[in-house]
Amino acid sequence: MKKQKNSGMRKWSILMGLAAFLFLAACGNNAEKEGAQVKAASQDILYIGMTNPPDNFSPINAAGVSARWAQRFFYDALLDMPDALTFTPRLADSFETEDNQNYTIKLNPDANWSDGTPVTAEDVVFTYNLIADPEVETTRGVAVASLEGVTSSGKLEEGRTEIPNLVAVDDKTVTLKTETPVDPNYLKEFLAYGIFILPKHVWEDTHKSELANASFVTQPEVTSGPYTFVEYAKDSHIELTANPDYYRGEPEIKEVFLKIMNGTNLVTELQSGGLHMNASGGIGEVPTQELKTVEAIEGLEVNVQPSLTVQMMPINTEVFKDKYIRQALAHAINRNQIVESLLGGQGEIVESIYTSVSPYKNEELEPIAYDPELAKELITKSDFDMSQEIEIVVPVGNKVREQSAVLIQQDLEAVGFKVKLSNFDFPTVMEKGRSGDFDLMMYGYALNIDPDVTNYVGPEGVSNYSNYENPKNTALLEAGLAETDPEKRKAIYDEAQEIWQDDMFIVPLYSALDIVVKNETLNGGITEFWPGSLTDVEAWTLQQE
After folding, report:
1. Predicted confidence band at 545 (pLDDT cuts at 50, 70, 90)?
2. Do 545 and 521 contact (CB within 8 A), yes or no?
3. Which residue, 129, 331, 501, 539, shows the most beta carbons closer than 10 Å to its own?
């Protein structure tokens, strides 16, 4: 997809800068923290707009992309990924293997927790073992599933109390072993980039059953990242402050506010100078119908780029038991209408869980046709009771997704379904997904570059909200993990995508193009590879006009 740039980008006028300065002087710091509109003139405070609130702040159990993204400001992983399958040091200086099965990790000698305690190999070993503990609830299980002694669901094999051959050799060296040889890039993305290391000295004395609501989870005080956590005002903002002792150097910008709002207000605040940038990535979206608006605003830079985030509709297979009724749901939905009418054409229709950004997308897979008559025919092949009302659970915040749910409701009713829409905040939707308390659910998936999606489609995947299980699919997922040759892995996942489309346990909808906006005063911000955008956040600066 060709990147579009605003051709009319200009500097704010001197008068606007002076007005912003006077506004800040009048409001004072307290007003800023209360969410007052703030002009983008401060060099010390960065304001970022988000549309999705975090579900929780547990480094091992946050499911939502917004929470994981926010955590990257104050928790570090072993490695960073500034570009697709390109890894750079973070807590780890190196992550090496000679046989794709035995790995040695060397930690940064200067890395400390925010309370001054050194980050050690024991912290790494503790984190991985905690995730693999059968008594611990976590969304990170798939990340440790390839390690020796761990099941495909990411839990210790029966009879084990810790991961074998996971060893703290000394304070700054860890060795580990996978069950079989794996693609090193897979392990680096999932294990080294995908897991935030925990401070053992803070977590180890709390009972496993109390971890989810522990004070160090809801109010993270001991962290390892460039910023430290100050507060979360629910559905309002997350406040962060610079970590003066950060091992990569104290951040240039001293405070960060992640402000939570709907897309319309996000555009208004970008225009007024109340925000320096939007988070984008599916969690801080400028509505596509507002693209021309932001392109016309002086002092803003605007890019449009493909995204790894895909909008899907998981189907509860306990409610819709046979594949015919699930296929009927898919063929009844006019996805092209969603992309054209709600996204103004700024999106792509997806055939599976992968978007065009992924090198593992099955290009030979035929699109799901919008065919109401075929949908009606498939309904007759099913024993589904069409007299019952079905509920679509929709998270609030993403207006296009909310509006697309209305169009989907109309499409489904047109072929004979009785449909009710129910809107909930994002954490509630996640809980409904985990408990199976839904019929259909609107949900955004933010994928990895590595093709493994066991977490979403594996029988024990923590985000397999559809409760889907097919032995052929399970075998392919296992084969995909075991294969180290990229071309052979692609063939495996191509076949898996054909099975997913036939079983239709998740209806693939669309992937909105990412509208990335920032104020010209910001040196830094979202990059074309969105997952790596915070790689150098400590070096970002703000300049006054």
Report:
1. low
2. yes
3. 331
